[in-house]
Design brief:
The protein has about 250 residues and is α/β, with parallel strands linked by helices. The protein is about 50% helix and about 15% strand. The N and C termini lie far apart (about 50 Å).
Length: about 250
Amino acid sequence: MDVTPTSIVAEQAELPTADVLGVKVSTLDLEATVRRVDDFLRTESTHAIVTADSSGFVLAQSNDALLQLYKSADLVTADSAGVVWAVRKLTGQRISRVSGVDLAFQICRLASLKGYRVFLLGAQPGIADRAAERLRLQHPGIQIVGTRHGYFPVEDDELVAAEIAPLKPDVLLVAMGIPRQEMFISRTADIIRAKVSMGVGGSLDVFSGKVRRAPRLVRRLKLEWVWRLLQNPGKVRKVALLPRFVRLVLRYGR
């Protein structure tokens, strides 16, 4: 009789994806993505999740290590309207955006319901602590087993990982920007052994209340990038990469 756990069967099931610049982007919506993350968390393996926006794809074209991380990730979500457009342009599929901040919030909700242990790493000193306080109010019962700011040199990655490992987090959310967060996750996966590790960009700033999320209408109009730019003009360099992303996609589709 087959007694293989349902979660293992689900994890082994082929993930529906679309090819964007050589990277397999998940076509699951947010709800289905959270179910897949739950499947990951029911195993004893480590899993890397990438929330990829247009700028990340552009950076990966000149950073082979980052491109390989995108290609080897267990799950890559479409974290921008540009990536959603690219999937439609290249494959004809209409998919939903699955942003890092939305997915991280839902993973925290899942953790509160099922007892998964969460560690928050990144952002400026004090931000992860404030994010943890607010998440505990929003998700009663959530086990946030530790926090740490992200202001440390690459040379200290393994030392920081060794500090985190004894806390045995099931979920590691890393907010240090692209590609720093993805590189940290890759370098330290065998030390921390979190079942799910995900780079979440500025999500801890949002969770802490430091940054206000764009209103729902702005998000529905796919103009959240404008809202972010108005709040932080320094993001203009990321926005400036969008035309290059469009050119890459158009050439890739020929």
